[in-house]
């Protein structure tokens, strides 16, 4: 059997304020805006790191799946407010420089850069919707 050739094309993160999400991902993290789709007062934003056109994050309105119940929608909203609903791990060769830029931009800092017992150095921030972003130093 041969190995499959599979890559990650897009991951979805919820956003509840498209303008704040766009400012964070484009202006603070330096990602490119690749698509901006609106429908019925909702917006889906596709962003990704410059130089990596095949890697995308779709910032989407939360709990829009028609199969989600009102109770599930309430729980999702509560988890987003606490920052426990969604997360993403990013990597950078310059963690300290990246962290300094996040602080200067007023990002919601959760953890300053630190050496972790599992062998990585990372920091943590929350995006405007409360999603946890861990940023690892990639050497």
From TrEMBL:
Gene3D superfamilies: 2,3-Dihydroxybiphenyl 1,2-Dioxygenase, domain 1. Residues 7-138 form the VOC domain. InterPro entries: Glyas_Bleomycin-R_OHBP_Dase (IPR029068), Glyas_Fos-R_dOase_dom (IPR004360), VOC_core (IPR037523). This is VOC family protein. It comes from Streptomyces bauhiniae.
